[in-house]
Amino acid sequence: MKRAATIKMSVFFLSTLTLTLTLCLFLLSGCSTESQRHYELGKWYYEKGLINEAILEFKAATQQDPDSYQAHHSLAIAYTKKGWYDYALKEAELAFDLHPSDENYHLIQIIRQKKILEPVYESTLIDTLR
């Protein structure tokens, strides 16, 4: 009885894994360019919380297509998540230069605010811990 349940669980796991991998390959193969593949994979990594991997993919996308404002925008967000505000600001400004929009403008403003507030937060935290 246990063996039958184990076999059913194994089959279920393998079919779920196969379906997931097939879906990922389908999504990635539907991308028209190498840059788009890197960008889509970066979004997937970011959604899974794998920020370092997302950064690598977004950087690859910007290297393949320097005019991809979406890749620069997403890279800016990922850098912000890591607290790397100087890099984030550079990428956000590039995104805005390529595609002037309210969304890109607001991203620049948010990063600038975070960059200003970070030292204040750190000094408050240090004072609290003393």
Q: From N to C, what is the helix and strand string?
A: HHHHHH
Q: Helix/strand-derived class?
A: mainly alpha
Identify the CATH class. Answer: Mainly Alpha
Radius of gyration, whole Å: 20 Å
Low-confidence stretches: none
The number of distinct β-strands equals: 0
The helix count comes to 6
Helix proportion: over 70%
Bin the strand percentage. Answer: under 5%
CATH superfamily: Tetratricopeptide repeat domain
What is the number of domains?
Answer: 1
Average of the residue pLDDT scores: 84
Q: How would you sum up the global shape?
A: flat
Q: Report how far apart the termini are.
A: 61 Å
In short:
The protein has 130 residues and is mainly α. It has one domain: Alpha Horseshoe (Serine Threonine Protein Phosphatase 5, Tetratricopeptide repeat). It is 86% helix and 0% strand.
Architecture blueprint of SSEs:
Layout lengths: L1 H28 L4 H14 L3 H14 L4 H14 L2 H14 L3 H28 L1
Written overview of the protein:
The chain is mainly alpha-helical and 130 residues long. The chain has one domain: Tetratricopeptide repeat domain (Serine Threonine Protein Phosphatase 5, Tetratricopeptide repeat, Alpha Horseshoe), CATH 1.25.40.10. The chain contains six helices and no strands. Helix 5 (85-98) packs antiparallel against helix 6. The longest helix has 28 residues, at 2-29. The N and C termini lie far apart (61 Å).
Question: Main traits of this protein?
Answer:
single chain, 130 residues, mainly alpha, Serine Threonine Protein Phosphatase 5, Tetratricopeptide repeat, 6 helices, flat
